[in-house]
Design goal:
With about 575 residues, the chain is an alpha/beta fold. It folds into 4 domains: about 170 residues, Rossmann fold, CATH 3.40.50.2300; about 100 residues, Beta-Lactamase (2-Layer Sandwich); about 90 residues, Helix Hairpins (Orthogonal Bundle), CATH 1.10.287; about 150 residues, Heat Shock Protein 90 (2-Layer Sandwich), CATH 3.30.565. It has 14 helices and 19 strands. Strand 11 and strand 12 form a beta hairpin. Helix 12 packs across helix 13 and helix 13 packs antiparallel against helix 14. The two termini are about 85 Å apart.
Length: about 575
């Protein structure tokens, strides 16, 4: 706790004179934390009265206070014999050199420069109090004559006061110098940052594929362009900067561009121009999408116009091409719908018209066998057997064709399919190959689930397993292996048999309707099953392929998208 000159340890009393409450409270807090007792006055007149009545150990006063300035308050204190030993510290911004002279003339003991640091203020306070404790008697000295700003001034302050004020001024100068040095360093850093940002911005603008340009708001003269604008106009920037739109473009185009610029400046808002024609550019007639926006400086009026133009000629041509193709596709789709409806009607009629005579033929063949079998010789019975076999084959072909045609019209209703359960069920329902034919062994591996239409997918497995059963029926130990895996974004399934196989030279015919790689004398069939498989897989957005070797079996693969395509 600071002590007074008599050795008393009671708090030293400081009078703070400040009319700005926040500054007064801040200084009061600083002093009270150091153990000083503080009183506050908010004007010069009340401060003089409180000094007379309280006799504080120190007065800290601002210079611009109401009713009586800090200089006049200090002068009144110093001319009063009862108060003159109280040191006075003036708090000032010290922006005018005359303030030092005013401080000397009024007899101030020290200056503290605003804004001040806590440590600096406390050092001045402690120095002023220590000087008072040492120098109790006033110094006797002749008035000093100072020539300042062309005028003579007589200073009656003591040498100690003059020295303190000079030291305060020196401290202030050093503080200002340090602040200036710090500000210069900060300015240097900020300048480097701005230059770096500008270089980055310049690089970005220069390499933007759209044309970027800036024009002044008075004559619409170009002040900045990027490389894309040079390419669009067909001139180097040296021939563009400083020129107005009428110097570069045709009158019609320049009038249009200038009118746009005037609208942007008048509205103060961004203007979006979806289509703008440029006829006199470097690349022939072009179609542009342009955005223009006013650029404001320090004032309320815009100083420049910023424009960004994107060449959309190719995009518009492509859009027109797509629209033309879309229209042609719609016509094609309408034709296909009409064709499908006609095909559906034809299929329905054909199946009815074909089934009826086949039923009659099958009926008469049955009657012949029942009523006249004993009258027919071996050749007649053979003919009857051939007729019945061909009727059965024709009926199967009609059923397969109907199934195949419905696949084009049937809507695909996808859901999650437990592939293991579906394949196990289809395999269990496969018919036997005959009493003299060994049943194939089935090796069923784990299969990933699929997102598909269960009914259509069931038909796929029926056709693939029937195929494997049929073509492996003539080997001693037929084996069918069913496997699956997930690869990338697909679930892939495989059906492998060790049967007759096929020649890869005829692979292109494998999935076509009515195309068969084996004759009826080898294996019966209609040539529709694999075409049906391909149609189902394609409608699911999947793919189908196969591998085979004559006499060594075949493997059929199909892949389905994991997310349903």
């Amino acid at each position: 706790m600071p002590a007074d000159g008599s050795g008393n340890t009671s708090p030293r009393h400081v009078l703070v004179v400040e009319n700005i409450l926040a500054q007064a409270q801040m200084l009061c807090h600083i002093l009270e934390e150091e153990g000083y007792r503080v009183s506050i006055a908010d004007n010069g007149r009340s401060a003089l009265e409180m000094t007379t009545s309280l006799l504080p150990a120190l007065v800290v006063s601002g210079v611009k206070i109401p009713e009586m300035s800090g200089y006049e308050l200090c002068r009144q204190i110093k001319v009063d014999p009862a108060l003159r030993q109280i040191p006075v510290i003036l708090v000032t911004s010290l922006v005018d050199p005359n303030e030092v002279l005013l401080g000397l003339q009024c007899g101030a003991d020290s200056f503290v420069i605003k804004p001040y640091e806590r440590s600096h203020m406390l050092a001045r306070v402690e120095h002023a109090l220590s000087t008072r404790d040492i120098d109790q008697a006033p110094e006797a000295s002749a008035p000093a004559e100072i020539f300042f700003h062309g005028e003579r001034h007589h200073i009656t302050a003591s040498r100690t006061q003059i020295l303190n004020l000079l030291m305060s001024t020196y401290d202030a100068a050093m503080q200002r110098n340090d602040e200036l040095t710090e500000s210069r360093e900060l300015l240097r850093e900020r300048t480097a940052e701005v230059l770096k940002s500008n270089r980055f911005l310049d690089s970005m603008i220069e390499h933007i594929p759209a044309a970027v340009y800036i024009k002044d708001a008075t004559h619409f003269r170009y002040v900045r362009v990027n490389r894309a604008e040079e390419d669009m106009v067909g001139r180097p920037r040296e021939e563009i900067i400083g020129k107005c739109v009428h110097d570069i473009f045709s009158k019609e185009e320049a009038d249009n561009f200038a009118a746009q610029d005037r609208r942007v400046l008048a509205s103060g808002l961004l203007e979006d121009i979806p289509e703008d024609r440029l006829l006199s550019g470097a690349n022939g007639p072009r179609l542009l999408h342009t955005c223009k926006v006013p650029v404001f400086g320090d004032g309320a009026e815009p100083t420049h116009v910023l424009g960004i133009s994107e060449d959309i000629t190719v995009r518009r041509d492509l859009e027109k091409m797509v629209a033309t193709l879309h229209a042609a596709l719609k016509i094609r789709v309408d034709d296909l719908e009409t064709t499908n409806k006609s095909l559906e009607s034809f299929t329905s009629a054909a199946s009815h018209d074909l089934r009826s005579p086949l039923s009659v033929i099958a009926g008469y063949a049955g009657l012949l066998e029942k009523n006249y079998a004993d009258r027919l010789d071996e050749k007649g019975l053979h003919y009857l057997s051939v007729i019945r076999a061909r009727v059965t084959s024709m009926t199967g072909l009609i059923e397969d064709l109907l199934t195949f045609s419905r696949l084009t019209l049937q809507e695909v209703a996808k859901t999650r399919v437990d592939m293991n359960a579906l394949v196990a069920q289809v395999a269990a329902e496969m018919p036997g190959s005959g009493p003299d034919t060994p049943q194939p062994a089935i090796a069923l591996g784990p299969l990933p689930d699929a997102q598909a239409d269960p009914a259509l997918l069931r038909q796929v497995w029926i056709n693939l397993l029937s195929n494997a059963f049929k073509y492996s029926s003539r080997v001693a130990s037929p084996l069918i292996e069913i496997s699956g895996r997930v690869e990338d974004a697909e679930a892939i399934y495989s059906v492998r048999d060790n049967g007759a196989g096929f020649d890869m030279a005829y692979y292109d015919k494998l999935f076509e309707v009515f195309e068969r790689l084996h004759g009826d004398e080898e294996f019966a069939g209609t040539g529709v099953g694999l075409a049906t498989v391909r149609r189902v897989i394609m409608r699911h957005g999947g793919r189908l392929w196969a591998e085979g070797k004559v006499g060594e079996g075949a493997v059929f693969h199909f892949a389905l998208p994991l997310q349903g395509g």
